[in-house]
Write a structure and sequence with these properties.
Layout lengths: L1 E3 L17 E11 L2 E10 L3 E7 L1 H14 L1 H5 L19 H19 L6 H4 L2
Parallel strand pairs: 1-4
Antiparallel strand pairs: 2-3, 3-4
Amino acid sequence: MSSEKESNHFRSSQVVVRMPIIKGSVVSYTVENGAVHFKIFAFKDQVSMWSVKKTYQDFVQLDSILESKYVEYIKRGILVKGELPKKEECNFSNLPSIELVKNQLKTYLEILSNQPPTKINSDIN
């Protein structure tokens, strides 16, 4: 079963789910109105699949939320997150550069998707 869901931004008030039953992968990108949107497929329980489109800035916002809400877990090595590509190194008007950024964002999201189960979500309110 598949459905297309759109959301403009990652919100800090949303619970960040990182259980291994939810997997995410950046699969493609589109350029719309001069902005690059990365398409993410999310899978749950190998049954449900949905997709969302996010910009590079949305990933920056997600990273900021992780750094602020889960700083103690990151410091203790309980939560491992990858590195985002630096914005100044991204050329969003060059297709090979966009493809490189897509692959780096894919790696970033896959690292988050492949965390072992913990009680992080219930520990922090």
